[in-house]
Structures are given as structure tokens and as C-alpha cells.
Specification:
The chain is mostly helical and 347 residues long. The chain contains 13 helices and no strands. It has one domain. Helix 9 runs antiparallel to helix 10. The N terminus and C terminus are likely disordered.
């Protein structure tokens, strides 16, 4: 992958791996409940998504600041990076759902929902109240593409103006949503306060070169921010998610970048390897968790602690392996095929 900034920040790559793995662990709960588990689960793990969003804002700032980037070129690069794997996996789900509907449990396929999924347009899932595409984790990509549209439209501005205008636009969009409360699912989706996390990432990207705290202070900031995320994880965050998860995620990211700039970042090899395949892992993990859970239930392994623990261990290992294989066999070759050079992994 191309460096995630004007200088390569290994810390950002590590955080991608941590974010993808966190979301994987969070989604274990969905399948465990279908296997009879009704106990507590660490909801803070969902904050991996918030970390992805602030990383995206950071990367977009770092890769365009003080550089002349054409609007069409910017959008083309983003599409080449995001779309190939996502479209292929969406096609695979549609194919399986039409041929073997029972294999995907509750998934329903309609023409409009499928088209909207390919075009990154937020749409209600058939028979549900959730706004998500055919490949459910792709709901975050709908936010990503919306952010890219806003950010790209401001590329003509001088860098310092872009720093001010893009976050301000995001705030204005959110305020419009809060005032007018749009009923259309797409408008309600795009005006969610969660888009403010991209703005936090932009600000963090601007601050990255000027963070001048001691490593000890940065480590304490990181731990304190992580504690806030963990401590608020099981609260109903609602519109405050950007503040209680997004802001701490931005501070953690900025702290880790500062530690790296000081040459004190540990190797963290496992998280770095997960960072390599984070996009493939993120998009595929739900399907793997579901498939393993169906296998466990089919063999009568549910309703006991042993069944739950064995499921978690096997499902996590399988999801990571499949994500790694998809990255090397599908994502990486596909990205290289449609691009003259590799582009930033802003998943």
C-alpha cells in the first residue's frame, strides 16, 4: 500500500489493523446471541468504525495538503481504491442469495437496494429499518464516499482554507439534519453527527507535524482516551458518538503518531499485518462469522459455554485467515489492475 500520508506513518497502519480487529470482535456478539448467549458484551469494540473514520480524515488531509490534486483524479483514485473489492463481494452475495437464499439467513435481494448498494447510496434494507447495503459492513463506505464528495469539492481551495471549510461544511450538514430532521433515509443518513469524525481526522492530520509532547505525556493521553471509549462503550451514545468515541479516537491516533515521530513506537508486527488486510478483513468478516455460526448450530454446538468459546476462537481465526487470503488473492491484484500505482488504504 502507498504511504498513508506525506510521510509514511506506520502508526496509522497499525491503527487500521486494530480497528478492523475491534469490529470483528464486536460482531461476534450477533452470532453468539443466535447460539443462545444473552450475557454482557463489550460494546466499545464498535468504536473501531469511529477510528476508521478519523483515520480517513487524517489520510485525506495528509495526502493532499500543500499539493495540487485534480478533482477528477482524486475521485478516480478513491473509487479505484474502494470499489473493486466491494463490488465483487456485493456481486457474490447477490449471486448466492438468488441461488441459495437460506445460506445468507435474513438477507433479501431487491433491484433498487442492489443498485443503491453499487452506487453507494444509503437505502433501507428490504424488510428492515436499518440503512445498509447488500454487503452490510459497506454502510461505512457510504459515509466514506459522502466525505470524499465533500472533501474533493474543496480541493480547489488553498490548503489553509480547506482546513477551515471542510470541517465547517460537515458541521453545517449535521446542523441542517438536526434542524430539518429529513425523513428520506439517504438524507437522514448523510446528516448524521458521525460525519464530524472525518473533520476530527482532518484537524488531527493538520496537527500531526506540530505535536510536541513528551512520549510519557502522549502515552498518558492515549490511555486516557482509550479509557473514555471503554468507559462509555455500553452507554446509549446516539448523536454523541462522535464526541465520546470519535474525539478520543482522534486523540489516540494523534498520540500514536507523535510517539512514532519521536522514534518510540513499538514494532507491533501483528497489528501491522492486520493493517495490510484490514479492508478485506472488514468487508468479509461478517460473512465468515455467519458461516461458522451456521456450521456450529448445524452440528448442535450451541447453548453452552464450551460451544461459545470454541466458536469465538475458531471464527476469529477463520475470519482473519479469509481476510488475509482475500487481500492477497483478490484485493491487492484487483487494485493494481485498475490503477497505475497503488493508492492509500483509507478503509
Amino acid at each position: 500500500m502507498e504511504p498513508a500520508g506525506r510521510a509514511y506513518f506506520r502508526s496509522i497502519h497499525v491503527l487500521r489493523g486494530a480497528a478492523a480487529f475491534s469490529v470483528l470482535l464486536f460482531h461476534l456478539h450477533v452470532q453468539l446471541t443466535r447460539m443462545g448467549y444473552d450475557g454482557w458484551w463489550p460494546q466499545f469494540l464498535q468504536s473501531g468504525v469511529d477510528l476508521f473514520f478519523v483515520i480517513s480524515g487524517f489520510v485525506m488531509w495528509q495526502t493532499t495538503a500543500d499539493r495540487k490534486v485534480g478533482l477528477i483524479d482524486f475521485y478516480a483514485r478513491r473509487l479505484r481504491r474502494i470499489a473493486p473489492l466491494y463490488w465483487m463481494m456485493t456481486a457474490a452475495i447477490v449471486f448466492v442469495a438468488l441461488l441459495v437464499p437460506s445460506a445468507l439467513q435474513s438477507t433479501q435481494i431487491t433491484l433498487w437496494h442492489t443498485v443503491a448498494s453499487y452506487l453507494f447510496i444509503p437505502s433501507l434494507m428490504p424488510g428492515d429499518t436499518i440503512v445498509a447495503p447488500v454487503l452490510v459492513p459497506g454502510w461505512t463506505l457510504n459515509y466514506e464516499m459522502f466525505f470524499y464528495a465533500v472533501f474533493g469539492a474543496c480541493l480547489w481551495m488553498p490548503t489553509i482554507w480547506r482546513l477551515r471549510v471542510v470541517p465547517t461544511l460537515l458541521v453545517a450538514i449535521v446542523l441542517a439534519g438536526l434542524v430539518f430532521r429529513p425523513q428520506a433515509s439517504a438524507l437522514a443518513f448523510w446528516t448524521s453527527p458521525i460525519i464530524l469524525e472525518f473533520g476530527l481526522g482532518i484537524i488531527a492530520g493538520y496537527m500531526a507535524s506540530s505535536v510536541n509532547f513528551t512520549n510519557g505525556a502522549l502515552a498518558r493521553l492515549f490511555i486516557l482516551s482509550l479509557a473514555v471509549v471503554i468507559g462509555t462503550g455500553n452507554l446509549e451514545l446516539g448523536d454523541g458518538r462522535w464526541l465520546l468515541h470519535g474525539l478520543p479516537a482522534a486523540i489516540m491516533m494523534l498520540s500514536l503518531v507523535g510517539i512514532e515521530r519521536a522514534g518510540a513506537l513499538p514494532r507491533l508486527t501483528v497489528l501491522s499485518r492486520l493493517g495490510d488486510c484490514s479492508y478485506s478483513l472488514y468487508l468479509s468478516h461478517g460473512l465468515v462469522l455467519s458461516a461458522v455460526a451456521q456450521g456450529w448450530r448445524g452440528m448442535g454446538w450451541s447453548g453452552s459455554v464450551a460451544a461459545w468459546l470454541s466458536y469465538m476462537l475458531f471464527a476469529v481465526a477463520a475470519a482473519v485467515l479469509v481476510g488475509w487470503l482475500i487481500y492477497h488473492l483478490v484485493e491487492k491484484p484487483a487494485t493494481e489492475m485498475v490503477s497505475s500505482r497503488r493508492t492509500p488504504a483509507a478503509a
